[in-house]
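hey can u check if this looks right to u? its 337 residues, i copy pasted from the old doc so theres a chance i mangled smth
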Amino acid sequence: MKAYVLESFGLENLKLLSIDDPTSPNKGEVLIQFKNVSINYRDTLVIEGKYDPRFPLPMVPLSDGAGVVLEVGEGVTDFKVGDSVITAFAPEWRDGIPRREEFRNSLGGPLDGTMREFGVFSAKSIVKSPSNLSLAQSSSLPCAALTAWSALMEANPILPGQTVLVQGTGGVSLFALQIAKKLGAKVICLSSSPDKFERARDLGADFIISTKEFPEWGKEARKITEKRGVDHIIEIGGMNTLSQSIAASSSFGTISLIGVLGGNSMNTNLLPVVMNQIRMQGIVVGSVRALDRMCRAIEVWDLKPVLEPVLDWSDAIEVLKEFPKGKHFGKVVMEIT
């Protein structure tokens, strides 16, 4: 089969190779033919050796993928040949509070990822794709969508009428916007790009704050909420944005720490966190069962992921080179041809 293999860290060392086909599935396993994969910021860090340089190499990168079941092993009853499925980011984290190794063993580092034609997986580590989505759309769900779902539904569920603030228009932020609207929340969206304002409004954003016009956007968020503050903030910027998130948060509000795009070292006054009893919760994607719960909700809501035009995986090197520039709106998906 064909697969992209990272032989040593650095995008220049990612090669499309012919490697051995997987064996037939054993008891409790399924063989999947991948049709689509999607990219997350984590993937670019893994490839460059900036996420964890201890990951074993060679390795197949990328964490997100969707495909069809080609073969089922003995004892598998939840899936049949032809089912559309998606793989879980952390295949050993089944539900609840995991052991450390269960949520650290993830696809696309340290485990082989989805940038390949075929793979054998435990039937307990995959879920059926939402029936209302194509495989291209489904491939965008395992990391970004589940991260947003975990923040807003699993770790600290939001309530109708509450306010959610999302930073930017990347995958996690747009999924959080869509999920929050389905749950009856009001959404404030931050962006530095005027061309993305209307697109965010079309998805349901109630308020847009230009970070260029309001660099201290925490004050503007408090104005929007009539000084009450934001109930739930999707924090992806790290040291560049956390101080403003704290300023924007309501008393007893939640800041979901999801990304550190601006860096992970900072000098921030934490006294307001204590005095206002703000909850700061780290979020690392989610469990297999949470992925399934989210997929079933997506069916009921008929939620449609926001995708850039689907690209061919033969152009993967160029796509991965452009991805960190952040010009995309929503998820970047490739088709395996």
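The CA atoms of residues 93 and 287 lie 5 Å apart.
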